Amino acid sequence: MKGKGASLAETTQSFLVENPIFEIRQLSVWYKAQQVLKDVTMDIPEKQVTAIIGPSGCGKSTFLRSLNRMNDLIPGMRAEGQVFFRGLNIYARSVDPVEVRRRIGMVFQVPNPFPKSIFENVAFGLRINGFNGDLKAKVQWALERAALWDEVKHCLHKSAFELSGGQQQRLCIARALAVEPEVLLMDEPCSALDPIATAKIEDLIHELKREVTIVIVTHNMQQAARISDYTAFMFLGEVLEFAPTGLLFTKPKDPKTEAYLAGRFG
Amino acid sequence: MRRSWRKGLGNAFGVLATSGLLLALLALGTMIATTALQAGKLTAMDAMAQAGLALSLRSVDLPGLGFLSYVVAAQVDANSAAAQVGLSQGDVIVAVGGRPVGRPNEVWGAVKARGEGPATIAWIPKPEKLWGRLQAVARPERAGEFCVTLTSIPAGSKAQEAGLQPGDVLISVGDLPVTGTRQAWEAVVAAVRSGLEEVPLEIEREGKRLKLSLHPVQRTEIPFQLDFFGAWWRFLTRIGDPRYPERTGLLSALVGSLLVVGVMALFVFPLGVGAAVYLEEYAPKNWFTEAVQILIANLAGMPSAVVGIFGLEIFARSWGLGRSVFAGGLTLALLILPQTIIATREALRAVPRWVREAAASLGATPWQVVRFHVLPYALPGIFTGFILALARALGEAAPLLLLGAFLYVTFVPKSLMDSFTIVPLQIFDWATKPQDGFSCVAAAAIIVLIITHLALNSLAIFLRNRYQRRWT
User: What CATH number corresponds to the domain at position B415?
Assistant: First the structure.
């Protein structure tokens, strides 16, 4: 039996995280009557890349979106349990989800720039957050961090829709980075991109993890192996196994994890 | 087998749709053509009015001649072209440019056919000018009988030319026995209208019967200016004299329509867009909002006459606003608001959800998401819907008719509490008048309405094509 504030010893996490940025405790999420997440308990380490893998429909995206309360925007979604972000439960009544999203950025599956100029896409987050420094310098800074500056510096006022898919996705990363979030949640950011654009985003993730904690959902096991430090395997709404990436891929403890990694289902 | 059956059904629907479209085009074409044909007389009517003449239909029913109609100059402006050639109020116009005319429509038709430049007008002077004042005098020899006697013959008059003298007794005019002073003159008109140039008179002078002949018709040239744009301009910019179609104008109705629709827009736009944004972006999905949505959909389909009754009872009576522009605007607002809410919600719904998610993920509050993203992207669609609603409001007559708006007013409304009329009601008023010429000004006003509608709809299509976002 798990009571409130169950200890990690009783969960599927096989290791102790020293500096967790997220401490997730018994998080359950329902969509209308259907339970999508079941009692997820895990710690996510700071300034590391944590990958969430698992077959389609296992609740990866729902889990990711519950870390910055994006699920609140979907009518019929309901969460129970706690998610401590730097020790603060973001599901507490006193917490404003808008404030949570300001500190925890997100990149979506399909590149979704605003139908505005490249510059305006990056500047929007700064404007609504009351940024009063040098807007141009900050936009340049964000685009440089997203490794897009050199490609767009001459056409900042072109519509974002004129960029290629890979460029659009990096623009979305720059847009998220501009407001200096502490965490970047990435929901299958490469699934709509070609291999070259994917490689660029993966390089970018390597660069970014020095400053930002990254949680990435991916459908692609090789990608998880390449870029992540820790990997969680999810199955039917549960985290079956959470371990350092090397360990999970070489010595999976759960037979289901092993079967999934071996490609027996997916 | 089954496939071909389906294909046949598809073809049938195709044929139905095509023929429906053709019918609609045909109907529209016929409508515009007949209206334009009717309104075509406007130029001729204006030329007549510019020459200083307002016409009116009279008729006479004489034994032996039957029913005859004739055109009388109902008003002649001082110093006008008509006044300068000697026409005055009461004179009868019998031919224009050689064409005999019996009613105002025929006068305008003749002027139109005559074209630019001077036209010869044939007219019979009114009795005072034709033969002075007639007097009914008792016959001393036969008790109870009267005779019609000339008293003074105006110098230079047609009667003088015919050799009539004061004291002559009129026995018969054009073979009709004279029975009254007015009837004698009408007999002259009737004789001319039935084609006589020379009217035989029988008189009694100093106990002797004499036969004379009267040439009552005068011919003068009036320069008519057929000015198409001027005619329309004057029609649109004057209040005019509502008694005569050639002098009436649309200004009061145009201003009334603009004011009423303006008041309506001031209420509907913020309320409609606000309600739609609330329902689409904020409202929780529960039975209450469901009920509100069903209500709005029902209101959008409510007969406009019902809305008019509501406006009369609530705005005009309970709130004491009377038949004012303000009450009219509120009534129309009630009719248009549901439609605007529905159109705005459609436009908001066309903004994909990922836009809202992308903005929210950057820490935008719900209001910031709406203010900086959803609303700006939906605005072209919102405007398109709103312009179409405006066009509908401009053409609505029923609600304001029930509110008690006037059919015509002789002033331009200056404040929101003034009485008013609107273009559709003005059309209704003119279309139901029996006098010649009003059907023509009604048609002209309908053309104004059609052009306004086409312009507004084109603007809506232009806005949609130019500014609508494609989400790729």
Answer: 1.10.3720.10
Domain residues for the domain of B109 are: 43-124
Nearest to A34 by CA among A57, A4, A17, A56: A57
- Residue A3: its pLDDT value, please? 39
Say how many domains are in chain B: 3
Tens of pLDDT, residues A118-174: 999 999 999 998 888 899 999 999 999 898 999 999 999 999 999 999 999 999 999
In the chain, the amino acid numbered B449 is L
Are B139 and B103 part of one and the same domain? no
How far CA B39 is from CA of A180, A216, B235, B413, in Å, comes to: 70, 73, 11, 26
Q: Are residues B261 and B355 in the same domain?
A: yes
Based on the fold, state whether residues B265 and B320 are members of the same structural domain. Answer: yes
| Chain B CB contacts of A67 below 8 Å | none
Largest separation between any pair of C-alpha atoms in chain A: 61
In this structure, the dihedral spanned by the alpha carbons of residues A159, A164, A169 and A173, taken in order and rounded to 10 degrees, is: -60
Taking the CA atoms of B11, B14, B16 and B18 in sequence, report the sign of the dihedral they define. Answer: negative
Shortest CA distance from A163: residue in chain B: B472
Take residue B416 and report the two structure tokens written for it.
């929101």
| ipTM associated with this complex | 0.89
Q: Is B11 on the interface with A (CB under 8 A)?
A: no
Structural Rg of chain B based on CA atoms: 33
Decide if B361 touches A, using CB distance below 8 A.
yes
Cβ within 8 Å, pair B372-A128: yes
How close does chain A come to B382, measured CA to CA in Å? Answer: 18
Query: Which amino acid does the sequence have at A259?
Result: A
From the CA of B292, how many Å to the nearest CA of chain A? 19
Domain final position from B106, B124, B142: B124
CB nearest to A115's CB, from B361, B364, B469: B469
> Residue holding tokens 């006697």?
B149
Chain B residues closer than 8 Å to A161 by CB: 472
User: Is the minimum CB–CB distance between B371 and chain A shorter than 8 Å?
Assistant: no
Q: Could you tell me the pTM of the whole model?
A: 0.81
B356 touches chain A (CB under 8 A): yes
Contacts of A70 in chain B (CB under 8 A): 357, 360-361
Same domain, B84 and B172: no
Residues B143 and B257 in one domain: no
Among candidate residues B171, B131, B129, the one with its CA nearest the CA of residue B151: B131
Interface test with A, best of B281, B362, B368, B469 (most A CBs within 10 A): B362
What is the crossing angle of helices A165-177 and A195-208, to 10°?
A: 20
Q: Which one of A73, A102, A115 has the shortest CB-CB distance to B377?
A: A115
Residue reference for tokens 């109705």: B253
pLDDT of residue A49: 95
Task: Read off the CATH number of the domain in which B209 is found.
Answer: 2.30.42.10
pLDDT digits (tens, 9 = 90+) for A66-100: 999 999 888 888 999 999 999 999 999 999 999 99
Interface of A with B in 150-189 (CB under 8 A): 161, 172, 175-176, 179
Mean pLDDT by 10 residues, chain B (472 residues): 66 86 90 84 91 92 84 93 92 92 92 85 93 86 82 90 91 89 92 90 90 93 89 92 92 94 95 94 88 92 90 91 92 94 93 92 92 92 92 90 83 87 92 92 92 91 82 65
Query: Is the CB of B357 less than 8 angstroms away from the CB of A101?
Result: no
Q: Which of B355, B368, B472 lies at the smallest CB-CB distance from A161? A: B472
Q: Is the confidence at residue A4, as pLDDT, over 60?
A: no
- A128 contacts B358? CB cut-off 8 A: no
Q: Three-state DSSP class for B55?
A: strand
